[in-house]
Amino acid sequence: MRINYLICAGLLLWSSCSKDLQVSEAPDFDVTVESPAYKVGENVLFRISGGADIISFYSGEVYNDYAYRDGRVVAVPDSGATLSFTSAVQGGSQENQLSVLVSSDFNGNYESLETVKAATWTDITDRFTLGTSATFLASTPQDISDLMEAGKPLYIAFKYLTRPQAENGLARTWMIQALSLTSNALFNDANLPITDQVRAGFRIVDQDSVNTPARSLITSTQVRLLGNIYKDPDDPVYDPNNPIYDPNNPIYDPDSELYDPTAVRPEFVPYDPESPYNDPLRENWAVSSPINIGEVDLGPDWSIPVRGIRNEAVEEYSHIYTKPGTYKVYFVASNNTVDDVREVVKELTVTIEP
């Protein structure tokens, strides 16, 4: 009996806890504007009555327009674009390792360098200023409209060449960041950003990632290009008398003061002078994702918060417009729980005069 009672009690508790928290009613909310017309730079005062847990404001201006709350896509056909980035280089001594290329017919197959190079790539390195030290240097923006094809995506690539390092010196580390591709079309008195370093989606495509892997990498803010490590016959790793191969080395002895618990005795592999992987000529590329040059997705227009669920009630809200025009203003008020929301939308029209 006691077990049955506990089961029933548990089921009742679960049932009561599993019920959604419903909002009892929509907000009793209203808003008015003191005057239907204002001057640029004046405070437009909105009077708020009733109450709501959350109140948001859309001014009707670009990027704060209720009509584009689900997203804004701007068509920019045949507008062309301008590319810029910053670059820096450090270490090593090899010259002319970095190239900048673009393509409109790459098929998006990043599986191998062969599939990448099968596309038609135009070398535009000489259009840009490249870094000469570890201090990042701006490339200066350059128009690349002549390389864009209507209806086709654009790909940007940074090609990195490693020549045999015993003969040509050590490979250098090239770093590219702050990349920006901007449409030449104007929107809201500014050039539209098509893509940037983060959204470009660069990927490393290595010529031989198995035998001679490049040391390049992509971070959220930087493309970092570096060649493979070459095999030097004078490297101590090819000396069989190197202490790291000695099983009696105290770093492997748990009873020794020099013991290193992370040390693992490697297997000795002699230098092979006939190996084609010792110091080869190699390439690795950083290739962008396809870039849509015909339209720019600006994402949704966001509201301005007027009141949050934990804030005090508000009775008025003011906003200043910087451009003349007629604006559709929206206030969105809602009562909320974790499970439910009831919303009221109020629309007003405001005329802003010069």
Describe the structure.
This protein has 354 residues and is mainly beta. It is built from three helices and 22 strands. Strands 6, 9, 10, 12, 13, 15 and 16 form a seven-stranded antiparallel β-sheet that branches. A five-stranded mixed β-sheet has the order 2-22-21-4-19, with no helix packed on it. The protein is elongated and about 90 Å long. The model has no long low-confidence stretch (mean pLDDT 93).
State Rg: 32 Å
Tell how many strands the DSSP assignment holds.
22
- The percentage helix is under 10%
Biggest sheet features = 7 strands, antiparallel
Order of helices and strands: HEEEEEEEHEEEEHEEEEEEEEEEE
Q: Which structural class fits the helix and strand makeup?
A: mainly beta
Work out the oligomeric state of the chains in this entry: single chain
- Overall pLDDT score: 93
Shape: elongated
Count of the separate structural domains: 3
Low-confidence stretches: none
Distance between the amino and carboxyl termini: 82 Å
